[in-house]
Amino acid sequence: MDDLIGEFITETSESLAVLDLELVKLEQNPNDQAILGNIFRLVHTIKGTCGFLGLPRLESVAHAGENVLGKIRDGEITVSGETITIVLEALDRIRGLIDYLSANGREADGEDSDLIARLNVFAQSGGVAPAAVAPAPAAVVEEMPAEMFAPEEKKLGGMSQAELDALEAAFNSVSSTIEGGMDFSRAPDADMLPAVTVPVAAAKPELTEQVKEKAIKQGLDTATTEGGSAMANQSIRVNLDVLENLMQMVSELVLTRNQLLQVVRHRDDSELKAPLQQLSQITSELQDSVMKTRMQPIGNAWSKFPRLIRDLSNELSKKIDLKMLGESTELDRQLLEMIKDPLTHMVRNSCDHGLETPAERVAAGKPETGTVSLSAFHEGGHIIIEIKDDGRGLNLDRIKQKIVEKGLATGDELAQLSDEQIMQFIFKAGFSTAEKVTSVSGRGVGMDVVRTNIEKIGGTVSLSSTMGKGSTFHIKIPLTLAIVSVLLIEAGGQQFAIPQINVVELVGVGGNSEYKVETISNASVLRLRDTLLPLMRLSDVLGLPRSLESAAEYVVVLRVGTSDVGLVIDKVYDTEEIVVKPVSRVISDVDVYSGNTILGDGNVIMILDPVGIAKHFGEREGTKAEAPATATGTATDRNASFLVFRAGEGAPKAVPLELVSRLEVVDSKNVESSGHDHVVQYRGDLMRLKTLPGCNLPTTGEFDVVVFTYDGRTIGLAVDEIVDILVAPLAIKLAGNEEQYLGSSVINGKTTDIVDVGYLLKDFVDSLVRAGEYTATASGLRLLLVEDSVFFLKLLKPFLEDAGFEVEDAASAVTALQLIETEARYDVIVTDIEMPEMDGFEFVSHLRLDPRYKHTPIVAFTSTVNEHFKERAAKSGMSAMILKTDRAALIEAIQAQLEQMKEMA
Amino acid sequence: MTGTSLVVKDGEPAAAAAALAQYVTMHVGEAMIGISVHSVQDVIRYQPITHIPLTHDTIAGTLNVRGRIVTAIDMRKRLGMGTYPNLTTTMMVVVEYQHELFALMVDSVGDVLSLSGEDQERLPANMNDNWRGVSSGVYKLEGELLVIVDVASVIDHLVKGRAA
């Protein structure tokens, strides 16, 4: 295609977009000469250029349109809905012709005599009625074509002085109009207008008309350029392919840089480091700059909305006002393209479903004109777009009815859901609550497609609504698709990346006992504040072998569409900015991957697709629990998480979550008595039920049981009510004189009694000891217990003493080393691993340097045991490592070590 | 990542180029297979592969070959020949197919042979489906049979096949 034609197409498309906006504005302000002037000017330019390029069909349509506009300007035709409609019709025809031209490189065959005739009749009749006879505007009609082929200046020279003045006035006031209190107050080009007014202001009266015209033309041309730089000559048009290619190369460069950095990190030759540092910085800057070239203001995607709203208000007989805020918010043009359609659909939806008819509005005591507002802003590396209407809001009852009708959920399930959760159902496939299907919406494909499209670009959409007040859609999308921030995690012994945008929070559920994780008929759930989160192990989803039961575990809370799901993983590494590469076609049918990438260390990593993963939740658990957006905040500190419950009178009770295996609901019908004990069948075994003193087991109904696992056996504590899981400092005031309590602590502002799990297990253990399973052969041996947590100290010390050791304790590794240094000699050392200042590994390494302690049994205990820890434990010289909660195993380990010593001796 | 030099055995390829086709020969288990030299990009030693769960079990995983992400295909699995006795001694023949790179894992890589199309024979009828799906013909070499494997059918099979 001819370069000139190409440029013409781009320019005209831009002009058409501006015209749509301006015409709608004109309709609202029929007497605004400035707007009219601008419109006239733009159409005139289109017509002129068409003539110049030899595009007769386009030219004639533009010409007929211009005629009508001319009449409006001359006051012969008044601005009415009808007028605007017919001009818009002409513009649509032009747009169609331009599209054809752009696709085929030549003008379409055929002619537009029907439209032109109508336009002409309209112009001649003065816009009153097509049939009416009006004075022939022959002069205008015949003069104009002759001008078409004249050079620009001459063409303009053909206009009367009055016209020029009007234009100048029009131009000068464009900025003030735009900056004024109009609905489109912050149009994308508003910021550059002040700059443009300068040449005009400088154009003194004595300057020739031609100079003025040039100034005006330049100004207006600049004004039509979309959201770009201040002056037209400071920007150039670049083919998109060039930019895309550039972006691709920079992405590769970033990857290579990351690899280089990784390599150098493991080497000592600093020679490379300085230049590499610089290369790294330049690469980052280059990446930023290239990213900027791809950024466009979101106003570009919104520019067709005023026209759309106008058409819709006619079609739906509603009065609709459109407000736009934050049009200058920039995002990647690729995303901009992809967000256009979903946005259009949502705006249509708001107009059709959301807003009431004027009569209904008045009846509801609202202004006749409904408002749809669009706003966009940046928030933490994402763009938030909100579409808000002040209409009737969602009718929850209708939605519920529909949900049940469509079989998406049962009435019982709905009763469990909050209003907000129910609203999110409108994003499901085949869901439409519109009472009647209109041409605008109501076919029930809409919101589902909207959600799918937004999720495709890694975004999320949600909805909030108040009956009678209106609804708001929130869309959250990343700034760019090229580079995404991911969380690197491990499951089933393999690393994966999860896009950060979907990660709501990380919850540590560590240890071997599935803390907090509850099981309802084989489905795992997590009580997270006031929501119940469905859980799945990532290793199960991916069919990988489960890692060691004892491995540290986290739950990644993923927001997928409208629901939250929890993914149980083994390890969390880091976040990383990565360049997404599409997966090979041979694995593209696997829905759990959205791409892959090369990490800094040169390894390939798979990027998980949260949407695909969430599908597996649906498959395996039937109806998935939809969890709303109540979850915020940071990951919990698992060392200080408490399960708070009520049992009997007085203060709330709590146990450290670390000691809890799981929570169960027991039906009192299943409780059996055996002697003084109450037992219940549990997982094919018998679980003994205990109560705190002063409490009795309920005899009817169901009750909550906190389950503790001890040496492979389980014991359940019946409680009245599980209150919450709360994070609080593990500062226990050791004031408790009742032996079942360790003391009390302030949790969530309330004094809470901390239950001594050891007490609960006591007679259980006693009976074992009596049975000879544990013999206290350790009499008189000196044991040093190194533990920074008062709680565990209190828990372990009496236990070790019971076993016959003479126990001394140290609150830190440093204190312990001092103790050892100065005086005592210990036969056994028991140490925690996770401690401030110096951890267990370091402590033991130090200790083993001392010849007196070369062979002393050192048993470490920890809340997590994994391969990595085991390796470090062996390296540092620990004799054994066991889990903190397994006190019996601790004694066993110590004894085994002591026996080994004897044999050696 | 050392490239293995590919030796042209059968004299001057230019002389009889019209009638001769060149094949890179390689061993998968006991069998010798040949792949058209045009589709082969590179031959590299084994390097660690990132396993991709939920994919067809012929897909060994994915790896980074000179900055490009390459999908590794286990030829033993593809041809129903069990597992590699020693993974680290396997070789990877990197082939390009429809603008995408794949690494075919094989036991060893041999020479490049120039063979005449006239000598190619149909695949024996009693060969199993694994072979029939990927092979277009056989050459009777001295003491050994060379089965010509078509890269396109190896990969297309995976595109159509559902995840295992």
Question: Would you write up a description of this structure?
Answer:
The complex is a heterodimer of chains A (905) and B (164). Chain A has 28 helices and 34 strands. Chain A has 905 residues and is of the alpha/beta class. The longest helix of chain A is centred in the N-terminal third of the chain and has 26 residues. In chain A, strands 10-14-15-13-12-11 form a 6-stranded mixed sheet. A 6-stranded mixed sheet of chain A has the order 21-25-26-24-23-22, with helices on one face. Chain A has a 5-stranded mixed sheet with strand order 2-4-5-7-6, with helices on one face. Chain B is mostly beta strands and 164 residues long. Chain B is built from 3 helices and 10 strands. In chain B, the strands form 2 sheets. In chain B, strands 8-1-2-10-9 form a 5-stranded mixed sheet. In chain B, a hairpin with a 2-residue loop joins strand 6 and strand 7. The longest helix of chain B has 10 residues. Chain B starts with 19 loop residues before the first strand and ends with a helix. The chains are: A alpha/beta (905), B mainly beta (164). The interface between A and B is medium-sized, with 26 and 24 residues.
